[in-house]
Amino acid sequence: MRFFRVDRTSVEKAAAEIVSPRKPIEYYVEAVRKIVEDVRTRGDEALLEYARRYDSPDVSRQNIAIPKKTIAEAYRRVDEEIRNALRKSAENIAKLSETQLKRLGFRKRIDEGVMVLQRPSPLPSVGCYVPGGAAAYPSTVLMTVVPAKVAKVPRTVVCTPPSRAGKISDVVLAALYVAGADEVYAVGGPHAVAAMAYGTETVKPVAKVVGPGGPYVTAAKKLVGCDVMVDMLAGPTELVVYSDDLGDAEDVALEMCAQAEHSEDTLVGLVTTSDELANEVLKFINLISPRLERRETIEQSLQKNGYIAVCDTPKTAISLIQSIAPEHLYIPSKHEKITPQITNAGLISAGKHSSPVLSDYVIGVNHVLPTSGQAKTRGGLNIIDYVKIITEVRIMKGAAKRLGKHAAALAKAEGLTAHAAAASR
User: Which entry of 255, 261, 327, 367 is annotated as an active-site residue?
Assistant: First the structure.
């Protein structure tokens, strides 16, 4: 793992070095540009070519769409324990999404005789990208599809890559059943993103593409974002743990290993003011990681991208976190004083028992979160990504006359005399 000593004069330099092992998104954009353009211009022909090359040689026009019967059968096959977990996760995601949705609508008297009404209206269609292939992500199915259903999006499409044998795992299919996806296609990668964005003979285009993915998928979203709405660049996982408490060492190490097992591109680190904690965390990582099933991925991830940053003061540590703007921030101790000072994080998990892993699955908050510094400008996927806001204004006669004088004055100041006349009538 990389080691940094940081003071107030070196925060920006340290932050830049911490994220430096990752190639810039522009590198991947150029790598996927031909794929995206191919699918855009040649439709199914190109989509199937890339699907056979990168997903499974068995993908065909006949089996790329997954029938609802297949999805229902998989749900019945999985263990009851899995079904219960999927239902509980979906229930909590729906609860939070419903709360968010309710708060978007209001009726407000702004001035005497002036009423403003705001109401959310669902997008006509949403395409949800769910990573897959070597791994299975039923949780991402729920995170992307359930809010769409709460928002009453009429058409929810899911693209997820099959295994090389051409199969989507039963647990992912079971999640699709619980979530209620309308259309499911066994295809992944940049070609799937392009298909949802521009449409092919088989996959009709959507109004917006959401969901996480690796760097190539994220680059494809950046490319198609010029022509269709996308949620954010939700790329490889990022985690910062902030602690100065020696008693947190084992928990910190386990959380770092947990996020590092996603892929070799995961960016995981500890920010602290304690040399003792830094040494203890390293000790526990060396004890824990060899025992874990995905130890090779964890060790490669930590060796390539992992880091420990020892800061001279808590203020410096907070500045460093703000500069990194991580996807996940876990603060096991002293969170009451620290969390209000953090504004640049996709999701803050505060308190010893608030493991980011719980938020990844069952708390109800979304695990599709901004990466690559985007947490400086937006938060995680939420109900707002599935609706548009309709605003209605109702003005009474007296209010129109009274306020029209102010509107006319401003219109004249802008040189827009027709506006002034319309406001004064």
Answer: 327
